[in-house]
Specification:
The structure is a homodimer.
Chain A: E1 9-13, H1 19-28, E2 34-38, H2 50-66, E3 71-74, H3 77-90, E4 95-96, H4 99-109, E5 114-119, H5 121-126, H6 128-135, E6 142-147, H7 151-156, H8 163-178, E7 183-186, H9 195-201, E8 206-209, H10 210-224, E9 238-242, H11 246-257, E10 262-265
Parallel strand pairs in A: 1-2, 1-3, 2-9, 3-4, 5-6, 5-7, 7-8, 9-10
Chain lengths: ~270, ~270
């Protein structure tokens, strides 16, 4: 029988965005095998309801359990906002989301205690970031939240440095600039791709790409539970599954993952 | 037993967009009952593959059959492009798409034989409009096609007359302006909402909103098959079903339908 520690880490997202998280985990833990699931037939999640997101997340968890993963990373802010607690209660393996690590990192960075967060409509309306910040002990912070629903379609249409994207960013971020935040959490896995544009509009503000913090959290939990892969020399395998055609995911994954990967179809 | 003619017309779309078609059918045939299905849990369709769209369309057809509709209107250009022939082969009731009526109307309007069509990525890549135009007898036309993938998210985020939308329209439509088309098919049910902006950029070009032509086609087929509703005095009932939360669909439907409607949830 295969030792639990030798089993893969499962990572899921509504589509390609979660590959930014996968990439950070690959860097932090290069020996781990990874099973990635992108729900490309039902993407995006960011404008859908709590109930629907929980239903989709559970279907993906069942897929992950059938692939015998040792841990699951919910690499999607919307799914983390709505379904993380539910998944943690319902499954016997560790389930890690992206909200808590992002908040932790923002607390570490902010000097003036004014933190911004941007995300999809659903993520922002869930108030998951506010709740997480309220839960953490110590100094109190002011949080300013803003949804940026066009950022995902802009990235998915490869308008990463386009004038249109710059204008949309201006429109969304102006109110946050007025709040004098010094730290901004990029609360959606697509947003790190727009770092340049967001950075221009929010000059002088520190941008938190939660994927790095998530990778560290994954290492911490695997270590705590004695589940780190024993392979010290071998580079871990990564396999992606998608619910729509693998072709366009394959074409697109490079922007996010910066390496080639196997992509297969899996209808849930 | 209820006469077939007294049964409702089924209309489906990936989301709210098809309500522009429902509205035209309500105007053309006010006595007909209507069952509308919007697949809001899996919206949008416009960037998904042929195989996935056919799978979704068949699931919705099964729902329509269970509601005992006398006819189905595929009020989504992407679903019409990919799955219409398949549905027409597989079901014993008339199934009407939006491509053919749109092409017919464009042929009627165009003076110089140069016609443009805009649609989602999937609709344009399917070449359904080219094929339909090639099938029609008579004078030959030149067709210029262009995908406008950001138009749907712009409408869904209510940026209908925003400066950003105007810029995006300029970007997408400039190449069509260069082709000297005199007629432009709005090949996506969301696009009639952007008529003002599109009309500004394409000054002097006739815009084809296929929903009117579809409504006429629906009347023609019901008449031909003796299926027009016998109710001459009563206003037909309309019920909408959606796969995600009814709340946001309800809020949003007014822009498209211009009347209040009942909305229920139906997970397929």
């Amino acid at each position: 029988m295969r030792a639990i520690s030798a089993k893969p880490i499962g990572i899921f997202d509504s589509g390609v965005g979660g590959l930014t998280v996968a990439r950070s985990i690959r860097k932090e833990l290069p020996n781990e095998d990874i099973i990635y699931f992108g729900d490309t037939a039902r993407v995006p999640y960011g404008n859908k309801s709590r109930e629907t997101i929980i239903r989709f997340s559970k279907e993906i968890m069942e897929f992950m359990m059938s692939r015998k993963v040792k841990m699951v990373v919910v690499a999607c802010n919307t799914a983390s906002s709505f379904s993380l607690a539910n998944l943690q209660r319902s499954y016997p393996i560790p389930v890690v989301g992206v909200i808590k690590p992002g908040v932790k990192e923002a607390r570490r960075l902010s000097r003036n205690g004014k933190v911004g967060v941007i995300g999809t409509k659903s993520t922002i309306s869930s108030r998951a970031y506010e709740k997480e910040l309220a839960r953490s002990a110590g100094r109190s912070y002011s949080l300013y939240a803003r949804s940026c629903p066009l950022f995902v379609p802009l990235v998915e249409n490869k308008l990463v440095r386009d004038q249109v994207t710059y204008r949309v960013a201006e429109k969304y971020l102006k109110p946050l600039r007025g709040k004098k935040i010094d730290t901004l959490i990029l609360g959606c896995t697509h947003y790190p791709i727009l770092k340049t544009v967001i950075g221009k509009v929010m000059k002088g503000v520190m941008l938190v790409d939660s994927s790095l913090a998530v990778a560290k959290e994954v290492r911490r939990i695997l270590q705590r539970d004695g589940l780190l892969s024993g392979h010290v020399k071998k580079r871990g395998k990564m396999t992606c599954f998608v619910s729509d055609d693998p072709g366009s995911f394959r074409d697109f994954s490079g922007i996010f993952l910066k390496e080639k990967t196997r992509v297969k179809k899996a209808v849930l």
